Amino acid sequence: MEKEEKLRRAVESKHIPIVTLDNKWHKVWTMVEKPSEVAKNEGRLNELLKRQGKLNTEIKDIKKLKKKLMDEIVPLMDEGDTSSINKAEENKRLIEDCNKKLEEYEEELMILPRQIGEINKEIMFATMEQCYYVLHENEKNIDQLAAWITGIRIEIKKNIIRKQEMEIQNGIMYSYMNDIFGADVVDLFDMSYNPMEKMIKLKEIQEEQKAKNAN
Predict the structure, then answer these.
(1) pLDDT range class, residue 1, cuts 50, 70, 90
(2) Model confidence over 202-212: pLDDT tens digits?
(3) What is the structure's pLDDT at 78?
(4) Which of 141, 122, 137 has its CA nearest to residue 37?
(5) Could you tell me if 124 and 19 are in contact, meaning their C-beta atoms sit under 8 angstroms apart?
(6) How far is 196 from 136, CA to CA, in rounded Å?
(7) What is the pTM of this model?
(8) Which of 38, 42, 66, 165 could lock 98 by a disulfide, CB 3.0 to 4.6 Å apart?
């Protein structure tokens, strides 16, 4: 509960950019599973943003139409004939309709930013909760993997030393048997390789390592 309050206070104290317009926000959900509530609110936020954009466009179009209608009224009244007067009256009626629409749309536009801000913060709060959980889970797994890797490295080093010791043992014993029985020692002991060659190669590697360390 304390964690939730801490995250909630952090969200409330910051100006949160519209999350669905942020590529980094979308990238987060390519790495972890998006909760269904976040996906649902994302859809609602996008609908509100679309509505906001549509209202702004509608208002611009209505204002253009209103100006056109108003610009036509004076010339029509000047003409004075019945047809022109009727057209001027029709323009006035249409202008009234435009005013009503503008008032309605502008009222809605005043409400939308608050609705957008609220749902945007809800999405950010849920995003922070998910990130908090994943970050801490990853941190635990990273520590476990780091310990496992360290253990494996130590085990590998030990096994390399054991392998080298056994190769040296085989080389020494083979050398002794070779002095007595000659080249036939490989067949006599059913060996698939010449241990002396392994030992010589190992000594060469060790000499190279000593030379590198000296430099």
Answers:
(1) low
(2) 777 777 777 77
(3) 67
(4) 122
(5) yes
(6) 54
(7) 0.69
(8) 66
Q: Using an 8 Å Cβ cutoff, are 128 and 7 in contact?
A: yes
pLDDT of residue 200: 76
Rounded CA separation 58/112 (Å): 15
Percent of residues, the chain, with pLDDT higher than 90: 50
**Structure confidence by residue, pLDDT tens digits, 139-171:** 999 999 999 999 999 999 999 889 888 888 888
C-alpha distances out from residue 34 to 1, 40, 120, 171, 183, Å: 22, 10, 15, 61, 70
Question: Measuring CA to CA, which residue among 98, 101, 93 is closest to residue 65?
Answer: 98
Per the model's pLDDT, the better-predicted residue between 28 and 209 turns out to be 28
**CA-to-CA distance for 7 and 1, rounded, in angstroms?**
10
Alpha carbon distance 124, 132 (integer Å):
12
CA distance 101 to 58: 9
- pLDDT above 70: residue 97: yes
Burial grade of 171 (CB within 10 A; 0-12, 13-18, 19 or more): buried
Phi-psi region of 17 (alpha: psi -120 to 50; beta: other; left: phi over 0): beta
Give Cα 148 to chain centroid, integer Å.
Answer: 28
- At 190 the three-state DSSP class reads coil
**Distance in angstroms (rounded) separating the CA atoms of residues 170 and 164:** 10
Handedness of CA 147, 148, 150, 154 (dihedral sign): positive
